[in-house]
Amino acid sequence: MQSTEVTPRRMAASSSETLNPGRLVVALLLFAVLMAFLWGGFVFLRDAQRNDSVPKLLLAVLAIVWGVAGAGGFFYTMNMVVEQLPGNARRLLTPFVFVGPAVLILLWFLALPTLRTLYLSFFDANSIEFVGLNNYVAVFTERTMLTAFRNNLLWMIFGTAGCVVAGLIVAVLADRSNFESLAKALVFLPMAISLVGAGVIWKFIYYYAAPGQTQIGLLNAVVTGFGGQPQAWTTLVQPWNNFFLILILVWLQTGFAMVIFSAAIKSISEDMLEAARVDGASEVGIFFKIMIPTIQGTILTTTTTILIFALKIFDVVLVMTGGQYGTNVIAVEFYRQLFTAGDNGRGSAIAIVLLLAVIPVMVYNLRQLNRQEVF
Amino acid sequence: MAAAAATPARPTRRTGSAKRQQLIGKIVVNTVLALICLAWTIPTLGLLASSIRTRADIANSGWWTIFPHQQFVTTGTVDLPRETDLRQPITLPAELGGGTYTADQITAGVTIPDGRRITWENRRGRVVAIQGTQWGANTNFTLENYQNVLSGRKFTYIAADGSEKTEQGDDLWGALLNSIAVTVPATIIPILIAAFAAYGFAWMRFPGRFLLFTLVVALLVVPLQVALVPILRDYVNLDLNGTYMAVWLAHTGFGLPLAIYLLYNYVSQLPRDILESAFIDGASHFTIFTRLILPLSMPALASFAIFQFLWVWNDYLVAFIFIGNQPGVQVLTMRLVDMAGSRGQDWHVLTAGAFVTMIVPLIVFFSLQRFFVRGLLAGSVKG
Amino acid sequence: MQANAASISQELADAFDGKLKGTTVTMTGPFVEADEVKFNASVEEFETLTGIDIQYVGSKEFEASIKIQVDGGNPPDIVDFPQPGLLATFVAQDKVVDVSEVINADWLTENYNQSWIDIATMEGGSGPITAGVWNRVNGKSLVWYPKAAFDEAGYTVPETWDEMLALTEQIAADGDTAWCIGIESGAATGWAATDWMEDIMLRTTSLENYDKWVAGDLLFSSPEVKAAAEKMSEIWLNEEYVFGGRASIVTTSFGDSPTPMFDDPPGCYLHRQGNFITSFFPEGAVAGEDYDFFYLPPIDPAFGKPVLVAGDIYAMFNDRPETRAVLSYFSSAASVESWVRSGGAISPHNDSSLEWYSNDVDRKVADIILQADSVRFDASDLMPGAVGAGSFWKGMTDYVAGTVELDQALTEIDAAWPGR
Fold first, then answer.
1. Pick from A120, A148, A176: which residue ends a domain?
2. Which residue among B123, B160, B317 places its CB closest to the CB of C176?
3. Residue A349 and residue A213 share a domain
4. How far is residue C199's CA from residue C274's CA, in Å, rounded to a whole number?
5. Which residue among A76, A176, A358 places its CB closest to the CB of B29?
6. Cα→Cα distances C168→A122, C120, C154, C173, C199, Å
7. Which of C89, C188, C250 has the CB atom closest to A342's CB atom?
8. pLDDT tens across B64-117, in order?
9. Which is deepest, A88, A332, B120, C53, by most CB within 10 Å?
């Protein structure tokens, strides 16, 4: 019997180690046809919308067809081409067929602009004069930026913890309850509300009116109902106003964590859980000793995602307080510098600092990647 | 003994007290969940309530007043001497308990010893009101906000020749269609590309794997505003500006890091045995991907589809920069923000607007729910 | 209008001759909805006569999007700037076409008060240029009051600042708060406080000092500016004078703040704000009966009765004959006549007519502006964005909210000036 260490691929590949020119030509032709299709479709869709010659919905449907067929066809034909190549070339190129398009797109849309930003961060406001590290010095010494750093830390710790814990609890409870769909829909609902709507919603919760005036904000109405004094929760109650804003984030983003955890929990085999129950484990025990370890990877991913989101937090703060009253965060300051003050240098420096701040998170994730065994 | 040899126990073999425990557990779970859901829904409820109230009502009373509640009503008044100095503590007449309070305390409302509540009826006229409680509900409802949002508002203006004209503002339907046309392709295309990349990172060895994956995770944090100017320049050169294609590509680019990251997490946790058996059977990477990985990843794909759909649907900045704001092409978010008026004077319209725009994402969410099914992996390992 | 088109510019004459038929001019600006309808109505006649299609697109994210569009190489043809300071940034980058090469200088001098032309002159890459034409303006040195209740309580309109303070004190003694003040405005919170500062500066110091302040030569921490802030604090920080007290100032939106004025009995009697605030008043409030305004009184008679104004300046980014024609059109009152008639706009053009104004309030404001002996533009709109739309707003908000002391606030505002 063969050793289990044999790499399967060698067995399968032995049948076509040599190059087959005929099929390669066919594959290349197909690839060329596909490229023509992609380019033609691209031009057609672009112009059709300009000239308004095709109704919008039809245009959208055509775009989906073009995109899916194009992307799918691209991968298919590329793969066909690569498969006709000799074994070594194939082994080397196949991963790039899979990963290539994504990397190229990312390069164009995100990586190159980031490099440009790095470049601009060493220049002055109008990007004319080289100023070295001046922008960075300003970033780390200005009062507003220091407040922003502190606040982002608060967002990252409490916001992430809130979302992950709440999401996990809801996912597990919903799984066992009688009204799972409804519960998940209700917790998910805030994500569907645009930020404009969310701003209005929380305005009705945090609104401040002077003592004696009618309170139209829920929180102050409850507080005065119990005999307390109304407070300006998001503005004057410093620094606790940050927590009231973080609450908004938890309300919005728990749905995200819940959806992901829900999918992960569903993939835990029921047999394993039943076996544990038979052995006398309590539900709480099962939760901590079986479920959490099994979906550990998912918890890490979700925490990372929300952590990064908290690092980038922008919309909520801008809409609710504009970054004032000690609630400033890095992304809002970045926006102010880049667009309001028109300072390309300072704004770019802030963006780069944001990128650097994510390094510890990345390092941890990459260690997990390394542990993964691949083919 | 029997337990050792038995297959996994079935519930019917449990004792009566275990059954009761199970029932209690169920009740606890359902109650806690219900409370959480209530807490989550209250803010939205506030918005719903506000959307059916008039503008004046929204500004003057809390939205919960639409429910029956105890409210204070004036049952009588007492006149204080007209020269009472409001800056000094005021001593109330004997019929009101004779206590001393400041004018501000009376403004906030004071409960006098005999339990009645007093406040100012007319501060200027030095009239004090005695208040009692009464059940009431503010049920002055209106569908005006929804009408304005759905069919546009009427604007009147005076033309140069002096005549008065009325024009119907734009409604939401056009923008709704535009939003759908922008969002659906921008959701599907990135998922496809990301799925391939996720599989590549998860299960293939190639030089630069580490480096490229680092790139992907790092790019998660880039604020998309830094990309807007360079991309716009490129689009101008490609003559892509103002088309939906521009936004589809942009959202693909912006959404890929998260998509790859999330899908990678899921794909990398698929049982190794399944893939190994497929290799042994002579499948290529591509076949494994299309026949095994894609179907097995449906929950993850569906999850991400929901998020990407939501993000593109609710996005404002990217759509504005790359498409513009002409009535023919503007998307729902822009329409909604515009409806609040040049200076935001009509923000109460947003209450209804937010609900109307929420409907489509919710439909998407519900329709993708069915992919979250337990046991997708059960039985997929052969032998 | 067509008759003297040639005296404005050659392209405008060509347009009326039909030579530019079928062309398109793109425009952008911050106004939307009702205002957009009025704008379209105003240019409709021009479009029909010349065959030029003017496509306007409004945006609430105007300042961010215009920067991206200009930097990205894709600016619209004509842009409406409510902040000349923002336009100045683009002029410094040589992105804006010099109006003096498009429109005859004589016409500009004839149709505009010299102040408007001065403010439109900005520093380009190779010397000063005329950056744009003013199309609409609004007046800011106005105090609104609930006329019916005001008269009934026996108050009279104050003619000097001291009289206004006495009136405030009187109202407090009577048991009410005199002023309604609110500065909340999302990301722009604090601009209403800067308006007060500017009005007081005009009344307590010379026009030269005001101009130096705008240019950055007079620091915020200088005695003149500090004195203005202290004058403002006499009213703002006195809990008895402001509806809802000091805490309400930063939490109440500027648009919601005058609402108590219309209660019965009024929660406040005075509200200082620009004339656009009427669109926030309750529907059904009648100008002249339910509300009226008086001119914000002078403080020091030596500085006369200055008027603080703001407005929209239209600038050109892409040079083509049809763009020139449209910009030339905007320099004449005909381009805004319909909007003025519908209410919500005041024309700075000398060839406008007072009888266009449909209600007395608008007409009175227009009259004040046209008759003013000294007019100065809103300083925060003229200053560089980092200050005018940044630290000035934030500094004032922090000071009023009690986060920082006045001296520190003023120093921080100064520190944000570009180049310091």
1. A120
2. B123
3. yes
4. 11
5. A176
6. 54, 38, 13, 9, 18
7. C89
8. 888 888 878 888 888 888 888 888 888 888 887 888 888 888 887 888 877 788
9. A332
The reported pTM is 0.84
Q: Which domain holds residue C274?
A: 142-307+379-415
Regarding whether C46 and C90 lie in a shared domain, the answer is yes
Q: Do C383 and C344 have their domain in common?
A: no
Domain boundary among A120, A147, A172: A120
Q: Report residue C331's pLDDT band, with 50, 70 and 90 as the boundaries.
A: very high
Are C186 and C291 in a shared domain?
yes
In a domain, A129, yes or no: no
B323 φ/ψ angles, rounded to the nearest 5 degrees: -105, -40
Count of the separate structural domains present in chain A: 2
- Do A96 and A28 sit in the same domain of this protein? yes
Do A55 and A167 sit in the same domain of this protein? Answer: no
Residue A127 included in any domain = no
CB contact under 8 A, C251 and A213: no
Q: Which two tokens stand for residue C231?
A: 């004058």
Residue A348 domain-assigned (yes or no): yes
Residue C395 in any domain: the answer is yes
Residue A48 lies in a domain: yes
> Distance from A247 to chain C by nearest Cα, in Å?
19
In a domain, residue C133? The reply is: yes
Considering only CB atoms, which chain A residues are within 8 Å of B32? 173
Residue-wise pLDDT tens digits, C87-123? 988 998 889 999 999 999 999 999 988 888 888 999 8
Identity of the residue numbered A18: T
Neighbours of chain C (3+ CB pairs under 8 A): A, B
List the chains bordering chain B where 3 or more Cβ pairs fall under 8 Å: A, C
> Phi, psi (5° rounding) for residue C127?
115, 170
With respect to residue C26, please indicate whether it lies within any of the assigned structural domains.
yes
Buried b / exposed e over A275-294, threshold 16 CB at 10 Å, is ebbbeebebeebeeebbeeb
pLDDT tens, B286-299?
888 888 888 888 88
The predicted-structure confidence for A11-31, as pLDDT tens digits, reads as follows: 444 445 566 778 888 888 888
Residues facing residue B165 across a β-bridge? B157
Helix ranges (DSSP H) in chain B: 2-5, 16-51, 55-60, 103-108, 144-151, 173-203, 209-219, 225-238, 244-268, 272-280, 285-288, 294-296, 298-313, 317-323, 332-339, 349-368
**Structure token pair of residue A340:** 């309001």
Report the C-alpha gap between C391 and C410 in whole angstroms: 9
Closest CA to C232 of C262, C288, C192: C192
Query: Average pLDDT of A52-65?
Result: 78
Task: Say whether both A233 and A338 belong to one domain.
Answer: yes
CA closest to B276 among chain A residues: A8
In the prediction, which pLDDT does A12 show? Answer: 41
Query: In percent, how much of chain C has pLDDT > 90?
Result: 48
- What is the CATH topology of the domain spanning B172-376? MetI-like fold (1.10.3720)
List the single residue in C with minimal CA-CA distance to A124: C419
| Angstrom distance (rounded) from CA C313 to CA C81 | 5
Whether the per-residue pLDDT at A7 is higher than 70: the answer is no
The token duo for C48 is 């029909």
CATH code of C365's domain = 3.40.190.10
Q: Give the tokens for residue A64.
A: 């989906």
Interface contact flag, C247 A236, Cβ < 8 Å = yes
Segment (H or E) for C295: strand C292-295
ipTM attached to this prediction: 0.82
Residues A214 and A178 reside in one and the same domain: yes
Read off the pLDDT of residues A111-148 as tens digits, 9 standing for 90 and up: 999 999 999 999 988 778 888 898 999 899 888 899 99
The answer, yes or no, to whether residue B381 has pLDDT greater than 70, is: no
Task: Using a CB–CB cutoff of 8 Å, tell me whether A3 touches chain B.
Answer: no
Domain residues for the domain of A57 are 8-120
